[in-house]
Fold each of these.
Amino acid sequence: MKNIEIKRWKPELVKMDNLSFDKNLFVPMPTGKKVDSLLSSEGGLMKGTNFAFVGDPGVGKSTVLLDWIADFQKQGKKVLFVSGEMNEIDLYGYVKRFPKFAKLPIMFMGDYSDCPKEAIEQVFDKGYDVVLVDSWAEVTSMV
């Protein structure tokens, strides 16, 4: 019988006095909409956080969130829309109704069915202030 060394996991305790963060991490990114007070007590999206918006199909989730990221882009934020459901033709219809979506950078996951994980990793490595993933279920099942 072989002797197998079992390495035990040792928890690392942290003292908050030893930590420091960039103060900009705690500056909210306001949407400019009434919902800001619901997103955080500071008034807007907080950096480094995730939100999930749910609702029945067709209630306007994608449209509202695309509107937000278009406004963030106009404020100079680096934004990205990752679409797991729509393709270029679908979004073309959106842009006809909402021209402000035309300048958004979009990653259509259907274009990367042979290498979705690698594609999304390469795109995310570029760094973004705000990323909208629609729909999370479709994108995560691909990746």
Amino acid sequence: QYPDTLIVSGNGDLWWTGAIALGMEYAAELNAEYFIWLNDDCLPTKDALFQMVSYMRNHPRTIVAPTCYLETPGGSLVKQDNAFIRQTGFAADPGEILEAEGLSGWCVGIPSVVLHEIGVPDAKRFPHYSGDDTYIYRATQTGFNACVLGDLKVHLLGTVHPKLDFRN
């Protein structure tokens, strides 16, 4: 369906963080200005990714995420915490732009300057879980900004795994 899509092959042992790191390195070699992390169980609303890039263009050194929603069996949408400050998770309401220390990797926009300054996510220490939030946390501790854009939405498909406690 997407003939312009490039597939970067790994060695079969990358897990989430290694795959993200490999993709970021490959895109950086092609001079990408921004990276979008988008899990396979996430469906952004129309123009959400475009608006994330637009926000990053207007706010240099800022990592962005939309608000993530899970559909209940009854059909209602429930916000899922995809940001944190001091180990407390939160999500943004429509109209809000909330600053964060870290973000979940469900759907995130990252300016390429982040990779150039702090490298790629740590796949050795965090091969699957916590490679995302610890990377964004490291970026914000280095001086980058991170925020959740409440007007942008991503629908999480299927089961959302219980959150791991950031302290662990």
